[in-house]
Amino acid sequence: xxxxxxxxxxxxxxxxxxxxxxxxxxxxxxxxxxxxxxxxxxxxxxxxxxxxxxxxxxxxxxxxxxxxxxxxxxxxxxxxxxxxxxxxxxxxxxxxxxxxxxxxxxxxxxxxxxxxxxxxxxxxxxxxxxxxxxxxxxxxxxxxxxxxxxxxxxxxxxxxxxxxxxxxxxxxxxxxxxxxxxxxxxxxxxxxxxxxxxxxxxxxxxxxxxxxxxxxxxxxxxxxxxxxxxxxxxxxxxxxxxxxxx
Length: 246
Fold this sequence. Notes:
It is a single chain. This protein is mainly beta. It has two domains: about 1-140; about 150-245, no CATH class. The chain contains three helices and 19 strands. The protein has a four-stranded antiparallel β-sheet. About 5% of the residues lie in helices and about 35% in strands. This is Integrin, alpha 8. Keywords: Cell adhesion, Glycoprotein, Integrin, Receptor, Repeat, Signal. It is found in: Membrane. GO terms for molecular function: integrin binding.
């Protein structure tokens, strides 16, 4: 208990179940508002977020909290909210969005399910997973962008590896954008930018073959999009954008 009678973690109001996904019998459920009291800063309760991964009809499970470290701060991963969004790649690798990292620049993290379960122990509170990958902090002009607010996975470059799709609803001067990310090294390939400021473009993303041509397409939600009719005030109606891969 960190040298005091206070707990190190706080699960009240943690939002467990805010994001849930399944893949070939694997299940992940996340609590993005799970809070953690750091070892070095006893008075702080950092919303690092956490996820739980279960396999084989829940016969085995492990916790995955990639932003839980011994010295988190707002400029680091202290407000990460890992698990705000979550998905699986086709080979079962976990993809986690943490929109609060690095002064809310946001972050995307990936790790293999087997590696998450391997060596898991309730006593190993601070734990790095072998083979884990994380996007890194960018320039401070990207603060308050919320990378990882939403995530999805698809194939868009014609190779054998899937790409990650991540919503950034407050990026690009609040126009919002969606980032396509290389899953092998988490470098950014291409961005799709919203057309209206503050529409929250990238609030939600989805990937599917919508036109049946065998290639993945992208859908992006902008729930605060506004339209104006003649001689009336703007109406906040929302909009969904479809990007077809031709």
